[in-house]
Amino acid sequence: MEHRIEQDNEGVSPVIAVILMVAITVVLAAVLYVWAASFLEQGDTSPFAQFTSTKNSSGDYYVTVVKVSTKYDLEAFSYFLKDSTGTTSEFGEIAMQNLSGNVVGVDVSYDATCDDSCDADLQTRSDAVNDDSGSVYAVTFNDNDRDGKLSAGDKFTARGSGHSSDGPADDDWSMEVKFDNTGDVIGSKRLG
């Protein structure tokens, strides 16, 4: 029995081999890109915020924003004033808004941010919140940098009882801020 080895010179041309390898590489890169891009699309993510709290002799508690990881418009946030047991005493929208005819918000700096386009109903509400001693509006908000966003330096005032305040807040109460897009509480601070 004789074994013969025959040489076969037929095969895939080098040009076709290169074209196939490039095509396979492109398809593989496209698949990896789509896979990696799916990790980047997470939708709305909640920012986080840090606050400080101080109390003045009038019975007012100032909760000042120290840091916010991502700035969003004030309309994206709401606040909660909670008593010592965690029960919500007051809550609401931060930004002055007219929601289907219902004027809401506690931003006392509204007139400084809207210029000539101020809505009369919202201006009236802002003035009422600012002039109240705390008996109707226990919490006010001041957008100190007037950018319309929750940002460092902005300040909540929770009114307690004192010689010029008539609000419910006390030393063992807390203020929470919620990001409405996701429903997450982005920060909380104990008063006092």
UniProtKB/TrEMBL annotation:
Put simply, this protein is called Type IV pilin
Q: Which residues cross the membrane?
A: 12-36
Task: Quote the InterPro entries the UniProt record gives.
Answer: Flagellin/pilin_N_arc, Pilin_N_archaeal
Which key words are in the record?
Membrane, Transmembrane, Transmembrane helix
Q: Name one Pfam family in it.
A: Pilin_N
Which residues are in the Archaeal Type IV pilin N-terminal domain? 10-65
Record's keyword annotation contains Transmembrane: yes
Renumbered residue ranges of the record's region Disordered: 152-176
Q: Which domain of life is it from?
A: Archaea
